Amino acid sequence: MRYLLTIITILGGFLSVQAQDSYTVKVKIDNPKKYTMYLAFPSGDDYTIDTSYVIENGWAVFKGKVEEPVLASLGYRGNPASIIQSDMGFIPGPSLSFFLSNTTIEVTGTVDQVHMAKVKGGKENKEWASIKEQQNLIEDQNWSGLKKAYETFAVSKDSSVFKEATSISQANSEKNLALQKNFIKAHPHSLVSMYFLSTLINDLSLDDLKTQFNALDQQHKNSNYALAIQSKIASMEATAIGRQAIALQKVDVNGQPVNLETLKGKYVLLDFWGSWCGPCRDSHPHLRELYSKYQSHGLEIVGIAHEQRSSLEDNKRIWKKAIADDQMTWIQVLNNEGIAQFDAVKAYGITAFPTKILLDQEGKIIARYVGESAQFDEKIKEIFGF
């Protein structure tokens, strides 16, 4: 009898371990019109979008395996309640975010508010639950406000209706930021904290990012979220104020090498942009004014474009067209060309467009600006005295 119990105990433990080698996501969502459901999550360098679920006892069931817990999203295609139609196309609504790990996870809710669905199962989701409901409400408020604004605009064509939605979104962003920061402090051992910190890397100073990262649990330091933070820290250190600018290793529109060394003696503005980036294109008329005003006094601009088409040929075409359309006469390079050998966007830690990095006459970094900034104009006036 003791021998039998031992075998059962060992077998039970073995089966328990085996059960954790894969995930089972069980979904019970009120979906009367049978919209197509998907489960999406990062997988190595790719992104998996799974629509292959089976129905078991009234549950839609996804099965698979992940190498580590990852942030996943669950949503539905074709549901008009989950999109906003506009003159420019459509805007997708929020999906449900949760951590996917090799365990059983249950999701319950309604199709029109899938982002508000309840999630049960998984260590990370249990930890996240302390603030997840508040975050869901924030997201729902943002989405409802945006939908209302577009519905009103469709009738009135008055763009001022977006002011209220923008104001609500900005206030909610501050609330969400506070929730995340408090969670990180309260849960230093949670992978969720590492994920939250990875989303804040553009909002924190180098010292603050390093301090918060070092305070988190070592067991998560090899996660993809930790690696993203470490990469950001490395690029911030390499491009910190006072550091020598990294050599570009790129060619201009005529195929000629661009060497920052040859520009020493001038103040050089590195302008990271893309033809697809509205704020980037909007900034170009002002850059033309500055270039016309200060070029003869020692200002040079190097535009570093990063395009998003699938082929280098297409990227070159739309890049050159944008240069011509925006009448940019300063030095231009395309990051996509030779990106396997040198990725300027990655080397300089660019995570938002436009980003401007200002170099002094010795080629050292003296300022960095993300988006439009009045401080940039003030700095230029300070340098040249007018």
UniProtKB/TrEMBL annotation:
Indicate the principal place this protein occupies in or around the cell: other
Give one GO biological process term. cytochrome complex assembly
Q: Does the keyword Signal apply?
A: yes
Q: Which residues form the signal peptide?
A: 1-19
- What GO molecular function terms would the record report? oxidoreductase activity
Q: Which UniProt keywords apply?
A: Cytochrome c-type biogenesis, Disulfide bond, Redox-active center, Signal
Protein's cellular compartments: Cell envelope
The Thioredoxin domain covers which part of the protein? 239-386
Gene Ontology cellular component annotations, sorted alphabetically: cell envelope
| Xref: InterPro entries | DUF4369, Redoxin, Thioredoxin-like_sf, Thioredoxin_CS, Thioredoxin_domain, Thioredoxin_ResA/DsbE_sf
Q: Which domain of life is it from?
A: Bacteria
- Give one Pfam family: DUF4369
Q: Which PANTHER family does the UniProt entry name for this protein?
A: THIOL:DISULFIDE INTERCHANGE PROTEIN DSBE (PTHR42852)
Name assigned to this protein? Thioredoxin domain-containing protein
